[in-house]
Amino acid sequence: MQVRHCTIERRLLTLKEAAHYCGVSVPMFQKHCPLRPVALGPGPRLRRFDRQNLDQWIDDLGNGQQIEKDWLAELERNHDGHQS
């Protein structure tokens, strides 16, 4: 008999996981992501980013929504070695 394992994708992500999910470093994520984490309890250890909110933010970036700074272009410049 084969045992099946159920994998559940977590909806709430830590800061490090949220940055990784968005494909950027933690400092870059903290600098440019306008979303605030959900507090599951007292203290910073229980703060989580909602994956659905991250998806919406990314979708809005892709749909040409105006943002304060074109952080994707800045990321590309920094990656190419051209600091702004």
Strands in their spatial order, largest beta sheet = 1-3-2
Helix content: 40-55%
Distance between the termini: 59 Å
Would you report the number of β strands? 3
What value does the average pLDDT take? 84
**Rounded radius of gyration (Å):** 16 Å
Number of helices: 4
What does the largest sheet look like?
A: 3 strands, antiparallel
> How much of the residues is beta strand, in percent?
5-15%
List keywords for this structure.
mainly alpha; about 45% helix; about 80 residues
Could you outline the blueprint of secondary structure elements for this entry?
Layout (H helix, E strand, L loop, with lengths): L11 E2 L1 H8 L3 H7 L5 E2 L7 E4 H12 L8 H9 L5
Helix pairs in contact: 1-2
Q: Can you walk through the features of this model?
A:
With 84 residues, this protein is mostly helical. The protein has helices at 15-22, 26-32, 51-62, 71-79; strands at residues 12-13, 38-39, 47-50. The protein has a three-stranded antiparallel sheet with strand order 1-3-2. β2 and β3 form a beta hairpin. α1 crosses α2. The model has no long low-confidence stretch (mean pLDDT 84).
